[in-house]
Amino acid sequence: MKFGKTAITGTITAALASLALCGAAFAGGEGEEKHEMAEKPAFEEIDTNLDGAITKAEARDTWLAAEFENVDSDGNGRVSRSEYEEAIS
Length: 89
Ligand SMILES: [Ca+2]
Ligand SMILES: [Ca+2]
Hints:
- The chain is mainly alpha-helical and about 90 residues long.
- The protein is built from five helices and two strands; from the N terminus they run ααβααβα.
- The longest helix has about 40 residues.
- The protein binds calcium ion (CA) (2 copies).
- One calcium ion binds next to strand 2.
């Protein structure tokens, strides 16, 4: 019985520890990207001609300009909605 309880406590402790670790990592990332996070507009706001993809020209005045190649994960020169949502999520 005692062993069982210890094991459960150990599991919870481990879970809490990893949660705290995640939290710390997240907080750290948030600190660095806070400005960027707040600035990221909806897909529709960048896809100004509403053809369902963001071109480099459309991205030019947004945060996406610097990240275009990274966000365009299939490298076709256009950022689709799914590529964009992947990037901002
Ligand atoms: Ca477009
Ligand atoms: Ca693409």
